[in-house]
Amino acid sequence: MEDRVSRPGLILVFSGKRKSGKDYVTDLIQTRLGSEVCCVLRLSGPLKQRYAQEHGLDLDQLLGPGPYKEQYRADMIRWGETRRNQDPGFFCRLAVRGAWQPVWVVSDARRLSDLQWFWTEFPQQTRSVRVQSSEETRRGRGWSFTAGVDDAESECGLDSGVEFDWIITNDVDALSLDEQLRPILDLALEAAPSSINNPANKT
Predict the structure, then answer these.
(1) Are 116 and 51 in contact (CB under 8 A)?
(2) Is 21 annotated as a binding residue?
(3) Is 80 annotated as a binding residue?
(4) 202 labeled binding residue
(5) Is the pLDDT of residue 197 over 70?
(6) Less crowded by CB within 10 Å, the N or C end of the chain?
(7) Residues 35, 185: contact at Cβ < 8 Å?
(8) Which CATH number fits domain 10-201: 3.40.50.300, 3.90.660.20, 3.40.50.620, 1.10.30.50?
(9) Per-residue pLDDT for 34 more than 90?
(10) How far apart are CA 124 and CA 8, in angstroms?
């Protein structure tokens, strides 16, 4: 039962730089739609879980925002790249396991292979969203450039070569997030009832 996956009505795959506010934006979408309609899936969750298991580390601290995670970030990125090279859909499959809501929000796609997996597995449902902020805004949120992290594929893999369905600008002087998110929320509400009411979407 735990591994059963529903066929969702809509999948919103988000990407963005560190401190762009993508977690805030995706959590806001879930708040607007409700947890019965929308779930937030983080590809980094199963990655950190496997990394912690293999290296004997504290998973709770790896999942948190503190310095513990930062001291392992570069090595964790390299380790994740190795696993993805062996199996590009490895972490995607783990992340969606058990998801049952009609709207899935993937908060942290970092590579083209992440997007390609969802496009292949759920071609009709998947939409891509980019959250962007200026470097000044990101610095105000605590970001500073870190070699081996900010110049790695995990931060730069989706900087080019993707035509996103939506680009959300998360700066102080940008349009309000509610206004920018309105078409996304409208699409989600359209997708949710058809998925909920159609038993054929269960697999």
Answers:
(1) no
(2) yes
(3) no
(4) no
(5) no
(6) N
(7) no
(8) 3.40.50.300
(9) yes
(10) 10
Of 116, 154, 111, 173, whose CA–CA distance to 18 is shortest?
A: 154
Residue 23 in marked binding region:
yes
pLDDT digit string (tens) for 107-135?
Answer: 999 889 999 999 999 999 999 999 999 98
- 48 assigned ligand-binding residue: no
Q: What residues does each domain of the chain span?
A: 10-201
Q: Is the dihedral of CA 193, 194, 197, 199 positive or negative?
A: negative
pTM over 0.85, yes/no: no
Residue 69 annotated as part of some ligand binding site: no
pLDDT tens digits for 77-92? 889 889 988 998 999 9
113 is in an annotated binding site: no
- In 3D space, the residue among 10, 49, 19, 4 whose CA is nearest the CA of residue 138 turns out to be 19
Residue 180 marked as a ligand binder:
yes
